[in-house]
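Why predict the complex rather than its parts? Because the way molecules touch one another can change local conformation, and only a joint prediction can capture that. The input here totals 600 residues.
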Amino acid sequence: MKHLLLIVGLVIGLVLLPMVVTKAYILNLIILICLYTTLSHSWNILGGYTGQISLGHSTFFGIGALIFRYLWTLGTPSYLALCGASISSLLLASVIGFPAFKLRGHYFAIGTLALSMIASVTVQNILPGVSFSPPQFLSKYSLIPIYYMALTAALVTLAVVSALTRSKLGLAFVSIREEEDAPEAIGINTFKYKVISMTLSTLIAGLGGGLFSFYVASYYYYVPFELGWSFDPVLISFIGGAGTVAGPVLGSIVFVVLKELFAISLGQMNVLIFGIVFIFTILFLPKGLIGIIGMVQGMKKSRDRLAKNV
Amino acid sequence: MLRFVQILSYGLLSGALYGLVALGLSLVFGVMNYLIVAHGGLIMLAAYTTFWAFFYTRIDPFLFILVVTPLFFIIGWILFKILFQSLMKFPEGEKIKNSLLISFGLLLIFSNLAILFWTADERAVTTIYSGKVLSVFGVRLPYIGLGGVAIAIIVIIALHLFLTRTYFGKAIRAVSLDHEAATLMGINVNKVCLVAFSIGFALAGIPGVITSLHAFNPAISFELTNKALVVLILAGVGSIKGVLIGGFFLGAIEAAGVYLVGTPYREVFGLILFILILMFRPQGLAGKRA
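Output of the joint prediction:
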């Protein structure tokens, strides 16, 4: 109950924030955190819960951005265009993503990496130009609609993921992650659940892509297809805590803040530091930063118990 | 026709390099199920090492193989002790996953370190024979490429002989077949893995030297890792002899792509082939079904 109140309070606070804070810098930070939360949760559903490590999420992110920009410049309202982006990403996944499940374990990771490389090279060659937001939007550019869309996307994503963790579906995902052959042996159709996981994941990745395209006014068409968009969610999810609801959120906050801190002074330094932190989390903190909180709570509990016994 | 032969020969020359690029990755993956995707990053670092060594000494870059290889052997030794030794106790699937993730972090670190130190500019070692070609019936073969083929063949034969004819090589093969049985035969598995891992790193030095003779930049590390993975799958996991053939095959496929569609899509052909093979023949073209 206390948790629920806290979350509701936080959401209301975030919704009311633009009325109090007018500094564009703060809003930008929150938008970026929402963007990365959406993207890394999209990865987290497939990689964290279902255990299928994908290095190809930039493909789905990129196609979302591409379709969103296309629909939007045609005059579609942005929220509808966002749905379109999301669905287009799913369509792409059903063509190229689902067959990838023939690949097991690490083959899936390197196969999807190849996929994102193909997408990135192809888009660079077919669409070498720069994409712009529609002029009528640019003429009265404001962060507020972007802020609310980012918040909506992130909240919807979080709602979906937390519903997932409480459902049988989520359990099925986790069982595939833990051991792929065992659920198959007791009659769980693992392929079906992997497809469902991929569906959810790509829908959300497309959402993230659309958000990117709504936020960034002009970019080269290939930018949302860059490999970084595949790698960042992996780092964020593992550092925050893969297979948890709060992990990727925490990871995104750390990621964006680190990026801001180092962007001015050291440029590429943030990826470097993130890479080092990533290796250390894999080696020493398999549950990520969220795991530390859990550990601290566990220690407190056991200390309380000790105190009671004495 | 001449154009096709020309493109194909370029493809085969770079194919030899691809074989070399995959060699270390394939050895390590075969022996201890570590998928070191940082391999491309290592090759990129070796290329920079050669570049700067050449810049200051002006000695023939091919001679730096003798320096760079032991240097990367030591780097491999250190990294194994720090990062990868703790993974030895995991079951096979976890080993692959964790080594993949850790080395993926390393790959990001390497490429960003290189950008930080040496910027993202393209560089290349320019020797007196750079750009010189041998003309055979009108087909132009660059000397550097031919040197690369020669080195690739020598290195792969040497590694093959080492693995089949020496006592330690046999121990490495025994460990790659079965860790437990090897332990029971009195082989020190930890030591063998350490040495095999370091050899894998050392083998990144050789393609690094050859890469430095072509244009390279920090971003090449992803491309090289990718080539190594494609060749690894083409050759069949853990097959040392297959690596050279796999490399040539990839080079030929890319050449066909260049001939049919155009240079920008050179990589796409290799990658599509890669995904198809992963889906339909994951044991590799040459490998046997497990």
